[in-house]
Structure formats: C-alpha cells, structure tokens
Amino acid sequence: MHRGYVKIWRKMIESQVFSIGLEYIGLLAHLLLVANYRPGWFMGFKVEQGQIACGIPKMAERLSVSRSKLYRMLKKLEELGIIEQQMNSKFTLITICNYSTYQGQYCDEKQESEQQVNSERTASEQQVNSEWTQLKKGKKEKKEKKSTGGSVMFVPPTVEEVMKYCEEKGYSIDPERFIAYYETRGWMLKDGKMKSWAGALKTWALNDKARWREDYIKKHGRTPESYDRQADEFLAFCDENEAKGALNVLPA
Q: Which residues, 6+ apart, have CB-to-CB distance to 25 below 8 Å?
C-alpha cells in the first residue's frame, strides 16, 4: 500500500550526524519517517509539521534499544542542532529542525488519509491502554480491601499530619509522643490492628481529659465544674454589688 515517502538528501553525508555512527543515521531516518508531514493534534495538543509526539519507552521498544540509550542518542541529536525536545507529563514532543526546508510542503491527499488513520489508531490504542491500567488499579485496590477485611490498608501518619489534625480539633497532644507510643506497639489496639489514626487520636484526647480531671479532683478535692460554678457565682456577686456601690462584703 502506498504510504508516501520522505527525502534523504546527499548533503547528510557532510553533516556531523553522519560521522558519529550508523545508529544515529538510523534514528534520524526513523524520526523523519514518523514525523507529522502536516499539522495535527495529539491528546489535545497541537503537533506541527516536522514534529513527533511520542512516548520514549514505546519508541525504545519499537527500535529495540534501551530507554537510557535512546535518551542519550536523542540528547546527542539535540546538542548537534538536529532536533529539539519538549517534555511534559504525558509525552515527549520532538521537533526536527529545518524539516520544511528539506521535506517541502504537504504531500498528496492519499498520504494525508494514511496519517489520519494512523493517528486515530494511536489514540484508540492509548485509550485501551488507559482503560487497562484503570482495570488493573481497580483489581489491586479490591485485593487490598479483601486482605484487610473490606477496609483500605492502614497507612501510619506523619508528625506533621498529626500536628495539623490536633490544631484543627483543638487537641493538646504531643504528636511525636503519640506516634512513638503506637510505633512501639506496631500500631496495634486492644481489639486488633489500627484502622484510623484520627479515631485513635480522638480517644487519646478524651483519655487525657479524663486523667486531667481525676488529677484535679485529687489535688483540690472538688471537680473543675464545681470550681467554674463557684467562680461564676462570685463574678455575678461582684457585678451586682458594684452596681449598688457596695462591694465590701465577699460571699461565703
């Protein structure tokens, strides 16, 4: 089937890339063959004439070379001014410098149709790969839930996470002491493995409050609540007598 062609100029013999080895000539020929011969779109990004939007791992597999070697070879072509590279989280955009100078304008409509079919096939393959990745991820999460009795696997908190949570809830707890205590116990509770460190932190705060109340009763012989009531009564007495101008007698 006719799929168009690219031009290989004899001037390449005089270039530096020709002198550094056959592998680089083969790589450059591959880039010329797969480059867009007219502007197009890839994953929502504009790909101009002479550009290739690709994944380096996939290209390395197609060329039967290691990823590290392909990275080095592309870097060398970039240093020689043959190509330019732009990378993002989704793919690498390779631009062949002076592509239009040596390859001319757009090829015939038949080649255009072939290019469109290839782009659609690539997009379809990527969608399938994405769906397959999501499927594997779902199976992994399901397996983890099953191994933990239907709950998400417990992840111990950091000191910063505990500190932030205490500030939000108003807990007077030492985060480092909390983490050190449960680390020595393997994050185990009386009834089994801890499932929620936030829940354990809340229990810790309630226990601290209960211990503080018991210590207060032992020391003062009364509850903190009774002290608060007595203080409120005293303040009310002061307000009443100050209004009368006779604040000279204290309540019993």
A: 12, 17, 18
